Amino acid sequence: MSLTSNDWLVCNDSHTLLSQLEQRLEASVSSDDAHLTELALYLVRLGGKRLRPALLIVAAQFGSAAPDHLLTAAAAIELLHVASLYHDDVADRAPLRRGTESANQRWGNVVAGLVGTYLFARATDLLASLGDVPNQMASLSSSVVCSGQLQELENAYNLDLTEDEHLTILTYKTAALFELPCRLGAYLSGADDAHAAALGSYGRLMGLAFQLTDDTFDLFGQTAQIGKATGNDLRQGTYSLPVLRALRHNGTAGQHLYAVLRKARLSNGDIDTALDIIHRSGTISETLSIARTYASRATAELDSLPPGPAHNSLTRLADYAISRTT
Question: Which residues, listed in sequence order, are joined to residue 96 by a DSSP beta bridge?
Answer without folding.
Answer: 101
